Amino acid sequence: MTPLAQIESLLFVSGDEGMTVADLATVTGLLRPAILANLERLAEKYTADENSALELMVNDTTYRLVTKAALSPVIQRYFESPLSTALSPAALEVLAIIAYRQPITRIEVDEIRGVQSTSTVQKLVLRRLIEPAGRLNEPGRPKIYRTTDYFLDYFGLKQLQDLPPLPAAATPAEANGDEGDLFLQAFNQQLNSGDDKTWNDSKKS
Description:
alpha+beta; 3-stranded antiparallel β-sheet; globular; 2 domains
């Protein structure tokens, strides 16, 4: 795998947190001049390719992959379109992980799920089910997320302690990365318990 591909892949998975040159050097083992040269090549590649949706943005010392400004209308429609529809299985899984592990970074959510969660996290923020709760004091200053009061209303809960217990695990730490599935299992149990009126009503809202 070429240095350019390594850097591009790292910037992709880091999402909106991005990475600094120092971060990229630590992970790839490349020297700073090589990283800067490849970042410049990457920026030129995106600029030259009119069929590429991406561009490289640098803010202070942090580099991020972002969509080109000209695509903002279609991106906006993408994020706004699900607002009147039910939560997808992927959204429920991300929401589950955040609910049981909060506060948590998007990268930690990715590690648990094994896939990128950037767009799903952004959708959940738009739906007011989660919100940023500050940043970690570590390289890249990643955002941490937590559930909102609206999350409690949406699922008919009075407090977080009312979350259904995780089946087959006493604590989130014992769930071994299966929080998403366990959360859905817990709510399925609630749906089948007969005490599900609030849950069903909230799903329709």
